[in-house]
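Hey team,

Sharing the Extracellular solute-binding protein run so nobody has to redo it. Sequence (347 residues) first:
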Amino acid sequence: MRRIAATIATVAMGLSLASCAGGSGDEGNDSFDTSSPDVVNVYSSRHYDVDKKIYDRFKKDTGIKINVVEGKADELIERVKREQSNPSADVFLTVGAESLYPLNQAGVLADSTSPKIKESIPENYRGDNWMGIASRARVIAYNKDKVDPKDLKTYDSVTDPKFKGKLLTRSSSSSYNQALLASFVSLWGEDKAKDWAQGAVDNFAREPKGNDRDQARAIASGEGDIAIMNSYYWAQMKKSSDPEERKITDKVGLAFPENTHLNLSYASVLKGAKHTDNAKKFLEYLASPEIQELIANDNGEFPLNPAAPLPEVQKSWGTFTPQKLDYATFGKERPVATRIFDEVGWK
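Structure output:
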């Protein structure tokens, strides 16, 4: 099972394989341009086509080029910590708010909010040194022909004996599953969170494997009846150019449980950044209604700026009540979550 800690050698190898450049479309590398005044250097664990569109638009609109090194979140966190006395990047961009806690503990994030950010992003989705970009819900997918969504009102529903041998999920090494269980530890306490994890394991249809799209495919093929998955994957499948993926969403529905787990993509300016003003401009750009709408349409996430319209796919899910998480601290429980996964046999 992959763990939070990574060796320096692993970090270096992982990052060397995943570099790219935004703005001009040039090929990038690990060596950022720190001398030019018209750049923003970004470490990102977001690997989405829409982000490349944003980088290009930002350069066109501002004249500031975005340089990007992509990697896995944990690897990038370790790199940021190692470089904190002389950071290479200006902005840290990632998909899971559970990483805020270790970054704050390391003291590597700069105070970077602004009046424009405060006007654009609700208070519960930002802090003095971070700003939520978009959210995604981790929900319960189900076979429309076999399961009544009324039976999926809470996350405890997946532990009901009626679903024994019918639950599908990805592995415990998934940051999405770790964040979900960490949120339960934070809100419910360790004992109840462990009971939930054990109940889920008891209902597994098969050993955890694959990504979230694979869980939806497994429901459609009859391998199981319910699954845990992120809503934005379903939205991407619904709008896919592949007719087979679109057919899967005809068979698979989404249930949003009470106190739905919402995790955030977020951005932070790094302490000691070489291009702080440009970095703040980039965060403000990400918070704008136009870019929020683009992210929601292209990637299936939820916009955080209330002025950004909600796409039709996300509207179709109706309203739901999210968990009341302190995004700056719930990541403290991630090590507890990984230990619980080991103890209950969630591979």
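The CA atoms of residues 144 and 251 lie 6 Å apart.

Ping me if you want the raw files.
A.
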